[in-house]
Specification:
The protein is mainly α. About 65% of the residues lie in helices and about 0% in strands.
């Protein structure tokens, strides 16, 4: 309102500003973000599976099956029509020709189906418990549909997410909040079977990877678990255990199932921002990174377009089409350097915006290397501090021994430690600029007083 009032007071500009300018503009931004992120075959599949990680917690398996059967019967359609069970995507649209398209979209991507199944499960429970149809419908809307599904109702939205600015900045953050609310209520009610069913749903479609990522297990340990499964079961069955049922076809849905974002690397502000902000902010930052990062290799316009499309889920199939047409399966970083190479199977999965298990394996390996290098640097530094201070040297060596036992192929041996200590001792007494400059850039430093 403050911005709207300010704009309307500006001469000439105010004449062209309609009421609720900020709200309407940011609704369009959220609508564009949804279009760029959710209109994919991957989202349709994940959204269809959503009742198994939400509704299954409060509706037992027989009820869930009966609700699905009722949904596709004439009787079920009459019940749904009578109580007007629909899904409103929460994005403002002028009524007209787009209405039917929105309805078809909601049904294809599963939003409407999920609302219907949740309502029918509660309705069946209520009528079997002796409630009248109207009582059962009311209970189903509150205890099943509203409790497990994601609606744009103001009463179902935390205050921090209600304003146009916060709703845009924190778009989709209602999901982890609501998932947490559901799990908390099940635990408070001591409904451990419901909790077990939800975890089973996550396990079926996210595998061991889901639980490791959800617990923020370091990447090196995740990689070790995956390698152990590869050695014990072979690649095919290892990926089925590690990535769940999608792993059988070489896909990984874990990134769409994890509640909340993984913190990852980067500065404190980058990590907090990744956790807190929604897709509009992250997409803008990703596009800016590609556009503003100087290329380290010569790239064609098509290759630059592929890099951009690769980072936007709805456009990812376009990138996959270019890869298949040009037989170019390189996945590039923003500066154009090749990070790794896919194969034809990975590109085919990307046509539906699916992440292949091979992509995830490669990213996991890169993250594991980074994690191990970080641990090595921390252990080396801890030993240097202990060695120079004369305190805690045995403890530091003990931690290095523990690391070497866990990771023998990346062991920190005595020769390496000696070289590291020699380099650190040589730098003692030097300022940070002096260490950075060396002899080549020494002339750039200001003369000492």
């Amino acid at each position: 309102m403050i911005l709207d009032n300010f704009l309307q007071k500006i001469p000439i500009v105010g004449e062209h500003i309609r009421p609720l300018f900020l709200d309407r503009t940011l609704r369009k931004v959220r609508g564009l973000a949804a279009l760029l992120h959710l209109r994919t075959a991957r989202f349709a599949v994940v959204n269809r599976l959503q009742p198994l990680t939400t509704l299954w917690g409060i509706a037992d398996t027989p009820t869930l099956i009966e609700a699905k059967q009722l949904q596709h019967s004439a009787e079920g359609r009459r019940v749904l029509d009578r109580y007007n069970i629909r899904f409103d995507a929460g994005q403002f649209q002028e009524p007209g020709a787009m209405t039917r398209l929105r309805d078809l979209s909601a049904r294809f991507f599963g939003e409407r189906s999920n609302q219907e199944i949740a309502f029918l499960a509660g309705y069946l429970k209520g009528t079997k418990a002796g409630m009248s149809p109207d009582q059962a419908a009311r209970n189903a809307k509150i205890e099943y549909q509203l409790r497990t599904q994601f609606t744009p109702l103001l009463a179902d939205t935390p205050k921090i997410l209600r304003g146009p600015i916060s709703a845009t900045a924190f778009q989709y953050k209602r999901f982890p909040i609501k998932q947490g609310e559901l799990m908390y209520s099940l635990l408070a009610d001591r409904n451990f079977r419901g909790v077990a069913r939800i975890l089973t749903g996550f396990g079926l479609f996210g595998g061991l990877s889901f639980f490791l990522r959800q617990a923020f297990v370091p990447e090196a340990k995740q990689h070790a678990a995956k390698s152990a499964l590869d050695n014990a079961l072979g690649k095919t069955w290892a990926e089925a255990v590690y990535y769940g049922l999608p792993g059988l076809v070489g896909a990984d849905l874990t990134g769409s199932l994890v509640t909340g974002e993984e913190v990852g690397r980067g500065s404190l502000y980058e990590r907090v921002g990744k956790v807190m902000t929604g897709p509009a902010v992250s997409t803008a930052m990703s596009i800016n990174q590609i556009v503003s990062t100087p290329a380290r290799t010569d790239l064609t316009w098509k290759q630059k377009g592929k890099m951009l499309a690769e980072r936007i889920p709805t456009l990812k199939p376009l990138s996959a089409l270019f890869s298949l047409a040009d037989d170019d399966y390189d996945v590039r970083s923003p500066d154009g350097e090749t990070r790794f190479r896919r194969d034809t199977r990975d590109a085919i999965l990307a046509l539906g915006s699916f992440t292949s298990a091979q992509d995830s394996n490669m990213r996991l390996a890169v993250d594991a290397i980074t994690d191990l290098k970080k641990q090595t640097a921390e252990l080396e530094n801890a030993y240097y501090v202990a060695f120079t201070s004369g305190k805690g040297e045995d403890e530091a060596l003990g931690k290095i021994a523990d690391f070497n036992q866990r990771w023998p192929e990346f062991a920190i041996d005595a020769k390496h430690l000696k070289t590291y200590l020699k380099r650190r001792v040589a730098d003692e007494g030097k300022t940070e600029p002096e260490k950075m400059s060396g002899k080549k850039y020494e002339s750039l430093l200001p003369a000492s007083r």
